[in-house]
Amino acid sequence: MKIAMIGSGYVGLVSGACLADFGHEVTCVDKDMAKIEALRKGIMPIFEPGLAELVLKNMREGRLSFTNDLKPCVGDADAVFIAVGTPSRRGDGHADLTYVYEASREIAACLTRFTVIVTKSTVPVGTGDEVEKIISATNPQAEFAVVSNPEFLREGAAIKDFKHPDRIVIGLEDERAREIMTEIYRPLYLNQAPIQFTGRRTSELIKYAANAFLATKITFINEIADLCEKVGANVKDVARGIGLDNRIGGKFLNAGPGYGGSCFPKDTTALVKTANDYGAPLRIIETVVAINDARKLRMAQKIIKACGGSVKDKVIAILGLAFKPNTDDMRDAPSITIIESLKKAGAHVRAYDPESIEQAKLVLNDIIYAGNAYSCAQNADALVIVTEWEEFRALDIGRIVAALKSPIIVDLRNIYRPEDMAKKGVQYTSLGR
Ligand code: UGA
């Protein structure tokens, strides 16, 4: 199949490279010429494990190319994927569909034969209908079908998620489109990945409902962690105890500083807006959003408490800035709120992250960056683990304690055991234990 991927950001690039690896002929398009030139040289705009290798391999083998000119590849494509950004619209939290509609107009003008237009960007219910209208209005002769095919990629594990998905959701209303989509995903079908064909609006909603449910699961365990602290229970054991029930499942039950990233915060807010617009409010998700926002601030209070009630003029060492490990993504990272609150309370912040320091510099001012965990801890009044990078899981705690001014460690990801920390003389604070 010939595929054009409009948008070479996170989703477009991973999807394009994986589809090329399945044997399809993929052209990734982006307006940012500097990005395209870098990609042609094998330089990735984002950090994602395995992505550079996959892109280079498929470029070498002639199945993957990059361009800023959408006309030839769209005209020649069996399917055109729209994978442009849908950021939160400033002011009201709705998904901003400007880029999706702009791409639709540009695609419409280039269509030469029956083509499937696939929205891969996360778009509110009804966007497919709008895309259809725009294409028909721009090019009344165009033969096309609009399909919804949401992505369920986790940053840091995106290639694995694409190649071994729990399911593929395809929303469409057109038989020819169904044949083309089946052909595109045949390699996964052979791997026995379930493909769910459904209506287009249903597919659009599945994406938001999935993210909102996962955000709810995380928020649920975060509140249970708070209760554990009050009643003297252990949240890790509670999570295991409930997660072994197949109806609940053990994943996404790790208590933490609140969910962040480019998806959950934006998608939960957008879903709440959609629900209100349609007069069917989602009270649970509204509450989840509010609890999660408040939680990030509460984490700063927890750190201040662990430091004896004040961080004024103290140096706080922060390990991990990205919203989760294996990414350099700082979007809505809990570290931002936590660091800003600590600074407001008079702390000096020193931070280390294996990948996201360059991104962090764009959003955080007045902090000092360290080159590793130990130099970050040097002479600090307390150490806080915000992101559970692999390299923070087996720190030489003796060395950390020796480096710190006082042996205070706040572990917002529960990666250490309280009894081990006590043995090493650490004043250890974690979540729900
Ligand atoms: C999420 C979904 O997991 C993907 O399925 C979806 O495709 C993607 O959004 C998207 O809509 O594009 P992602 O944002 O990359 O993926 O990251 P997650 O691994 O889901 O983590 C999100 C946040 O939840 C992180 O801040 C993480 O630290 C937090 N989290 C996750 C917890 O606090 N506890 C957990 O048990 C799991």
Properties at a glance:
Rossmann fold, alpha/beta, 14 strands, 433 residues, 45% helix, 6-stranded parallel beta sheet, 18 helices, binds uridine-5'-diphosphate-glucuronic acid
Layout of strands and helices, then pairs:
Elements: E1 2-6, H1 10-21, E2 25-29, H2 33-40, H3 51-60, E3 64-67, H4 70-75, E4 79-82, H5 98-110, E5 115-119, H6 127-138, E6 144-148, H7 158-163, E7 168-171, H8 175-184, H9 186-190, E8 195-198, H10 200-231, H11 235-243, H12 264-277, H13 283-306, E9 315-319, H14 334-344, E10 348-352, H15 357-363, E11 368-369, H16 373-377, E12 382-385, H17 397-403, E13 408-411, H18 418-423, E14 427-429
Parallel strand pairs: 1-2, 1-4, 2-3, 4-5, 5-6, 7-8, 9-10, 9-12, 10-11, 12-13, 13-14
Helix pairs in contact: 1-3, 5-6, 10-12, 10-13, 12-13, 13-14
The chain binds uridine-5'-diphosphate-glucuronic acid (UGA).
The site of uridine-5'-diphosphate-glucuronic acid (UGA) has 20 residues, from helix 10.
